[in-house]
């Protein structure tokens, strides 16, 4: 029985998969402040042309540049593991597989798109990148990519994580990036929030506003903005995860998984593991696909599908997505990377079309599951990833109750060995669950009432 399924470097996928080519009803376009679809010109102030083209592309396969593959090959192809010890512990007839993205230098999947984005920016003559980060994983990823490709990087880090996770800030500094707590005094957006709520824990929405403002206000025009999730081109770059996994499952004779699971913040690691299987599902394969989110930030399970801003103060276009409202500041849970009010338009559209079965889980169940995983499989997963582990364990328990030998696949999006504070608080009994009340969601959605509404699905 193989516990690790590895591919050779030569077997790395040479193309990314674009789900936009195959969705039965494509997502509606992002809209500008005038309510009209955004043109490539409007995006040029923040992104290079090649990424704008990918953002709007409906081509099914897009070539991965050779230099990007060379950098990814420092840790890719990542291993697929069979979780034999966890299966035994759960006494389940299910076969549990996990794709291990924690082996990257930054410890998560985020480097897959960071390298690609930094490379396309470099080709376009960009010198400096700005970004936001929640848990710090994305900031680390872009800092790493900047170091590889010779670009300066400035990261606005959500304050609650900046305080809870000082080691991520240090990692960014090791890779040469500048890391600032958000909201900050450096931008108008940050100063406005601080004036109203000086004690705010911050949010990804606020940090995005700061990073976009910092990019577009560079007088030398050599700065661009980079986003770690949500947008179509980010989902695209992450599909290397699922494409490798397909080859690895074939090596052990698994034709298709029965269930595919990923935690979902902005949607990128979930898209990465699942989109190549969504392709098969659209083609008729019987696969359940489950994005897992925190019950304190239940975008897909409790938010409506609307046009909303991607950030707090309106620097981004309006995106068609499930949302809790761009003014929503989620509770300061330890899975900082899942504290985002919206969800990737491609993940949202696939959910709307009934291709996904979203699930919300509370943080105590997630940490209970993460402890079981660490004590059986050994890896201490990131608090974000613990949501995927919790869902995989639920599915494995269900398989035992039903007496079914199904194949469960989940994405281990990152390790948590420098996120131990959440584990510590959980083990001391200091963590509680927080279910977001419907009234709170309704209150935040008021700010969207004048935005254009997405067209209903054709019947
Ligand atoms: C380890 C890890 N997993 C998951 C996420 C959630 O992001 P996404 O939904 O884009 O994969 C993050 C975000 O910071 C993360 O650091």
Description:
The chain is α/β, with parallel strands linked by helices. It has a domain at 75-107 and 232-448: Rossmann fold (3-Layer(aba) Sandwich), CATH 3.40.50. Helices cover 40% and strands 15% of the residues. It contains 19 helices and 15 strands. The protein has helices spanning 40-43, 49-56, 66-72, 84-90, 111-123, 137-149, 159-164, 166-174, 188-196, 204-216, 232-238, 240-251, 268-282, 299-302, 345-352, 363-376, 386-402, 420-427, 438-445, and strands spanning 4-5, 15-17, 61-63, 80-82, 95-100, 128-133, 152-158, 178-182, 223-225, 259-263, 288-294, 305-309, 318-322, 359-361, 407-412. It has a 7-stranded mixed β-sheet with strand order 1-4-5-15-10-11-14, sandwiched between helices. The chain has a 4-stranded parallel β-sheet with strand order 8-7-6-9, with helices on both faces. Helix 6 links the parallel strand 6 (128-133) and strand 7. Helix 9 packs antiparallel against helix 10 and helix 12 packs across helix 13 (268-282). The chain binds pyridoxal-5'-phosphate. Pyridoxal-5'-phosphate binds next to helix 6 and helix 13.
